[in-house]
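hey so u asked for the seq, here:
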Amino acid sequence: MNYYNEIKNELVNNEINRKVKNYSINKSDLNTYYKVGKMLSEAGKNNGEGIIKEYSKRLTEDLGKGYTFTSLTRMRKLYHLLEKLATVSQQLSYGHYIELLPYRI
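ran it, structure tokens below
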């Protein structure tokens, strides 16, 4: 038996599974953050900009950390960015988009 090839195949299969899983997670994150950003944008139009602070506090109480004012603001900015750049590649991660947010397009 050629153990090297067996080991290599296992490792290659694991890498493929990890990449597929990471892509799925990234795509889910982007879709979720886009939708949340859209809702935050609409809520801001109806309730004022202070709504993000209020939602941040409430989400943190209900769901735990990770829903800071900054995080929610980034989601809203992501929505606006993607509305302007509808053809941006889906291969970019949320982290890539965060890097793009400070730039005006």
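The chain has one domain: 3-100. The chain has a mean pLDDT of 79.
lmk if thats what u needed
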